[in-house]
Amino acid sequence: MNRERLEDVANAMVAPGRGILAMDESNPTCKRRFDSIGVEADEESRRAYREILITAKDSSEFLSGYILFDETIRQATGDGRAFPEIIASAGGIPGIKVDKGTLDMPGHPGEKFTQGLDGLGERLIEYREMGAGFAKWRAVITIGDGLPSTACIEANMRSLAMYASICQDADIVPIVEPEVLIDGSHDITTCDSVTRKTIRSLYRAMAEQDVFIEGTILKPSMVVSGTDCPQQAGVAEVAERTIACLKNSVPAANPGIVFLSGGQTAVQSTVHLNAMNAMGVNLPWRLSFSYGRALQEPALKAWAGGAENAALAQAALALRARLNGAATRGEYSPDMEVAA
């Protein structure tokens, strides 16, 4: 394990004013998104769309990294340049999703367990040779009647810790993503409690696994009300509760926290991130973003499957990247939503 390399890459991933574009959708997820714009999701259409995202020059200033899917890291532009090469040449860091999705957790109806540890070490060596500097693994925690169970939390957090250790042995920075799902009628207090329990379990497991915390990045959910909760918490409460939760759960040695948008709209996720960074609280780690749909959706709609719309799609991505870059400094304002 090269600790100096891991720490350098982790700090670069949360450089001031920059965040991470999550474009690691599986093929079924990509199909659902393409269906929404009436585009067939075949290998070439996925490649063409992702080329638009990766080659958007006005976005790269605000994006430190790009999380890729296995198919994507092997693809290239129309003129033959490998996607990881394009990212690195623009000053970004290529990353790779390495979990293999979720399964129903035996004995725990309604709960999921993330798979993918088998052969992970060998896959990481291959990805590193293709240019990957970091990886991502997502665990899913559901809030519901009697959920989540302690067994589900601990099983998933142990797997996250093992994944992180395997990554670091390969000199790849692990993003650890314990996503507490936004779906449900639970209130923000319940979300707060479950998020604290989950993140504390994660760091206990990583301590037991001797994970080098300075060479990791945390990708958590924000503390928000469930989507079906009749009482939706306001922006200030989301910011205050999320910061308090993280201060109570995340070691100071962690270099940065990149939030997932987790079902929030593009604007909501930007507003919430900005509110946290505008609080003026002295935090031991940087707060940034690792958004998928909240960054991509405007670009996807602008593209609509047409090569002639590439510039419009890139402008839409660039706007959201710039606004979220401002939010990492607490400098976003709603009037910035209109492109200059």
Within CATH, the superfamily carries the name: Aldolase class I
How far apart, in Å, are the first and last alpha carbons? 46 Å
Percentage of β-strand residues = 5-15%
Q: Identify low-pLDDT runs.
A: none
How many helical elements?
13
Could you give a short account of the major beta sheet? 8 strands, parallel
Overall shape: it is: globular
Describe this structure in words.
There is one protein chain. The protein has 13 helices and ten strands. Helix 11 (266-277) links the parallel strand 9 (256-259) and strand 10. Helix 8 (150-169) packs across helix 9, helix 11 (266-277) packs parallel to helix 13 (310-327) and helix 12 (293-303) packs antiparallel against helix 13. The protein has one domain: Aldolase class I (TIM Barrel, Alpha-Beta Barrel). By secondary structure, it is of the alpha/beta class. The chain has helices spanning 3-13, 27-35, 43-54, 57-60, 70-73, 83-89, 120-129, 150-169, 188-208, 235-249, 266-277, 293-303, 310-327; strands at 19-23, 63-68, 93-97, 102-104, 112-114, 134-141, 173-180, 217-218, 256-259, 286-291. Helices cover 45% and strands 15% of the residues. The chain is globular. The chain has an eight-stranded parallel β-sheet. It starts with a helix and ends in a 13-residue tail after the last helix.
